[in-house]
Amino acid sequence: MSIFAQEESNIWYFGINAGLNFNSNPPTPLLDLPIGTFSSEGCSTISDSNGNVLFYTNGEKVWNKNFHVMFNGDNLAGHNSSTQSSAIIPYPGTYNFTENRFDKYFLVTLDDYTEQAPNSEDEGVRYSEIDMSLDNGLGVVTQNKNIHLFGTTTTEKVCVVPHSNGCDFWVICKVVDSNNFYSYHISSNGFNVNPVISTTSFFVDARPGQMKVSPDNKLLSYVVPSSSNYEGLYVFNFNNSTGLITEKFADTTANENQYGTAFSPNSKVLYKCAGSRIYQYDVSTTTNNDFITSKTIFISSTSGLQSMQLAPDGKIYIARPILISLSGRLGVINNPNVLGENCNYVSEQQDLGGRFCLAGLPNQLNNLKPYNEIIIENELCNSLQLALENNNNILNYNWGLAYVTNPQTYISTSLEATPTLNIPNQNEHYIITCTIVSECYSNTYQLLFSPRNSNSVIPSFNLLTNTYCQNQTPNSLPLTSVEGIAGTWTPNIINTTIVGTSSYTFTPNQDQCAYQATIEITIKPNIKIDFQDTIICEGTTISFPSTNGVDGTWYPTNINTTQNTTYTFTPIDNCGQSSTWQVIFLESLSDLSISTFNNTVIVNVVSSNNMLLYQLDNGNFQYSNIFENVSFGCHTIKVTDLYGCTELSSSVFIFDYPKFFTPNNDGYNDYWNIVIENTDANLYIFDRYGKLLKEINQNEIGWDGTCNGNKLPSTDYWFVLEYDECGVRKTFKSHFGLMR
User: Fold this and answer.
1) Model confidence, pTM
2) Which DSSP helix (H) or strand (E) runs through 289?
C-alpha cells in the first residue's frame, strides 16, 4: 500500500474553532483558533512541505498563520455555508525550495447556491491570487481578487487535480443547470480562464454536496441530494492530461439524501454518507450494474453524517454537526481500502479537544502534488526492480529500502530512476522510500512490501481452451505449471455464467521461487436470434430477415411465397443456438356475397384467411361479418384482411315499410312514412279508388291519416315509392293499413 507523504494537508481548521494536526499520528486537536465560528460548511487550509500552516479560509475571508485576516483578505466572494466554499492551488513555477512552499497560490471561491445577488459580479465562481512573499512572509491577497469565472449561483463543488506533466494543475467545477463540466488549466503562465468544457448527459441544478477526485487523479465522485430531481451518486473518468471528463457510473437510488463523498487511498473504494448511513462502492468494477451491486451499507450509531475527507494518515474522517454530536467527535473509517465491515468505521473516534464540528471539513487536497506510486517492475528471489509510475520533470531520485521495524536505517539505496534494490531476507517485511526533486516540487513516496519468494521463472500452462460458451461446464485449472511450479488459483474455478473476459491468477506456493501468472478466460454468449413471424400477401416477394451480423445457414435455403413455411437459422459459431422464422401466407379474397334479412346484412367471402375485417360504408372495420340495424338505403360493404393484402367491395340496398299505423295521438305509431337515407325519393298515398291523398317529402314526419283536415276511416291504403336503388331509379307499389 502507498503511504501519503504530502505535509501540505497536515493542518485542518474547520467548524466552531476546531482543528486537527496530522503531523502526529494519531492527529492531535488544535485549540489555537480564536473564538468565533470559523465555518459552518466549506473551508480550506494549506501548509508548507514540512506541515507548518501558511493560511486558511472559509471562502469569505483568508487568515494568515498568525490568525489575522490577511491583508486584502476579506470580502471574498465565497460563502462559509457553501459545501466546498474554496480551493487552494499552488501557482506552478513559484516553488521556493528554501521556504519549502510556493511563493504564490490561487484561491478559488464558491458562493452558497441559494444566494441571489443583484448582479453576476457579486456571486458565482471566481478566483483570487495570494502572494506569500509579501508582508514578511505572511501573505497578501493581491489586486487580482474575486475575478469572475462563471455563474451567478453554484453547485457548491470544486476539485483541484495535478496535471499529468507533474507541474500544472486543473480546477474542476460543474455548471448549474447544464450538462457541462469546466476544467481550468493553471500553469506557470497563470490561471487560464478559458476552460476545457466536457459535455456529458449529466444535468444538475444548484444543490449542496461534495465532489471529490480520487488519489490517483483518474476519477471524480459527485453527490446530489434528494432535494434535487437529479439525486444520486455519480462517478466520472478524468483525464489529467487533457482535462476532459466522461461518464463512468451512476447510482440514482431514491431518498438517499447524500452529502459527503470520499475515495479510499488506493482509489478503488468509494464512500458516500447520508443521515446515519455510510455507503461503500467498489469502483474497480467494469459495469454500472456491478458498481451498484457492490454497494454496502453501514448503519452508524450516530446520525447527521455530512462531509467526508480523506486525511494524510490514509483514513477518512466524517463530520457530524454539533446539533447531532454533542460529544464533539468525528467519525473515522480506519481501513478505507478494505471492502466490507473490515473497513472499520468508528462513529465517535476522533476527539476535538472540546471544540465542535459543523457540516463541513476542510477541502484539503491530499494529492496537491502529482499522484505517483512506487511500482515493482520485477520481483526476483533476492532483489526488486523498481520505478515511479510517473517520472515527468523529475530531476533526481533517492531510493532506500529498510526493514519495517527500523524504517530510518536503509539496507539498500540507489540514485537511479529505475533501481534494483537487494532483499537480504525473504521472511522480513520492508518499506521502500523514494524521495524526488522535480522542476516544480519535492516529495517522498513510500510502499510497504512483503517478499513473495518470486524469481525469473514465469509459470506457463497448456490449457485445452481459453474460450467457453456461457453456462458450459469448464475444465479444471491445473495446479502445476508446465515448469513444475505448484500453486493455487484465484478464482479457483472458471465461472462460465457471466459473459466477458476474466482474469485468473496463479500464485505459486510459499516454498517456490516464481512469479504470479495470470491467464484470461473468455466466456462467449449463447447466440440465439429471435425472429418475428412475417405475414405476406399473395404475390409478394420477401427475403430472409437480418441476423444482426451473426453468420449462419438457413433451411430451407430458398423462400417459398405461396404457403405457410417454417425456416430454421443455425449460427456457425459453436455457441449459437438454432432459431426459427415463421412465414404466414395470406391468399387473396374472392367471391364476395351479401344476404339481407330485414335490417341485417350478412357478408360472405371465399377465403382460407381467418384474419378478415368488414366495413359498412365509412364506419369502423370489425371482425364480425354481420351488420345489424342497418338503415334503409344503399350501402357499401368492404372486406379486407388485417394486413391489407386484398380488398373486395359491393353495394347492398336495405328497404322495408311499415305495414300499418295507428294515428290516435297516443305518441306511438301516429304517422306513416318511408325514410330512405342518402337517396332522392318521392312517396305518394292513394285510397283504394286511386285518389291521391298525400305526397310526402323525405324531410316530412309522414302522413297522419287525414285528408283536408278530416280523419279517414280504418282500411287499407296504397302507396307508390319512386327511389334510387344504388344509382338505379325504381318504383315500388304496395299497400298498408290504417287502424283507429
Assistant:
1) 0.59
2) helix 288-293
